[in-house]
């Protein structure tokens, strides 16, 4: 909470925006500015002395602007993915392990990772990946690809994960080129 009915938003210890007089505002970024088609900047903060250059963001654009701001503002040490964070213990990691091997190998083959994430026996070397582990292409595509991967559930066992990853990546690449 901030002064009055205002709220500040932080992500991993970084100020990213807030609700000011019931208006969603996010820190100014070049990518967010482009997504919102060059809006007039607004200056908001928790006091008259702590004003930040921000953008008023319609709720329907909030998710995209938040992602753009986060990618633009934070350096290579930013956590991109922690395999252990998607589970509640070793049994779930075991169930999910083979799919992660396919996913990590796919990411490397498609030049999203700087280094091969598996050992010579195709076992996962690390469970945590940072922005610095990604290529430029990976920085642009990995966050959305991991979202699709984690949301994927094939109850009938009919969809090949490798094919689905290829489809998702192709669709994401089209959005980047557009």
Number of E-state strands: 7
Uncertain runs with pLDDT below 50, 5 residues or more?
none
Ends distance: 39 Å
Largest sheet features:
5 strands, antiparallel
Q: Into which percent range does the helicity of residues fall?
A: 25-40%
What does this structure look like?
By secondary structure, this protein is α+β, with helices and mostly antiparallel strands. Helices cover 40% and strands 19% of the residues. It has 5 helices and 7 strands. It has helices spanning 30-35, 62-73, 90-109, 136-151, 161-177, and strands at residues 7-11, 14-20, 23-27, 42-45, 51-56, 79-82, 128-130. Strands 1-2-3-5-4 form a 5-stranded antiparallel beta sheet, covered by helices on one side. Strands 6-7 form a two-stranded antiparallel ribbon. Helix 3 crosses helix 5 and helix 4 crosses helix 5. It is elongated, with a radius of gyration of 19 Å. The model has no long low-confidence stretch (mean pLDDT 83).
Ordered list of secondary-structure elements with their pairings:
Elements: E1 7-11, E2 14-20, E3 23-27, H1 30-35, E4 42-45, E5 51-56, H2 62-73, E6 79-82, H3 90-109, E7 128-130, H4 136-151, H5 161-177
Antiparallel strand pairs: 1-2, 2-3, 3-5, 4-5, 6-7
Helix pairs in contact: 3-5, 4-5
Kindly list the characteristics that best describe this protein:
5 helices, alpha+beta, elongated, 178 residues
């Amino acid at each position: 909470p901030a002064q009055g009915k205002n709220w500040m938003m932080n992500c991993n210890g970084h100020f990213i925006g807030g609700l000011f007089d019931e208006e969603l505002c996010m820190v100014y970024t070049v990518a967010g500015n482009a997504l919102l088609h060059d809006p007039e900047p607004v200056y908001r903060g928790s006091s008259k002395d702590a004003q930040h250059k921000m953008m008023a963001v319609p709720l329907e654009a909030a998710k995209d602007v938040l992602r753009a701001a986060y990618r633009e503002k934070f350096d290579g040490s930013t956590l991109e993915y922690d395999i252990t964070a998607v589970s509640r213990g070793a049994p779930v990691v075991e169930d999910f392990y083979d799919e992660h091997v396919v996913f990590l190998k796919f990411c490397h083959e498609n030049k999203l990772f700087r280094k091969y994430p598996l050992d010579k026996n195709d076992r996962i070397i690390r469970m945590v990946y940072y922005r610095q582990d990604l290529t430029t292409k990976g920085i642009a595509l990995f966050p959305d690809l991991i979202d699709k991967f984690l949301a994927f559930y094939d109850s009938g066992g009919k969809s090949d994960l490798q094919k689905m990853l290829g489809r998702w990546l192709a669709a994401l690449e089209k959005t980047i080129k557009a």
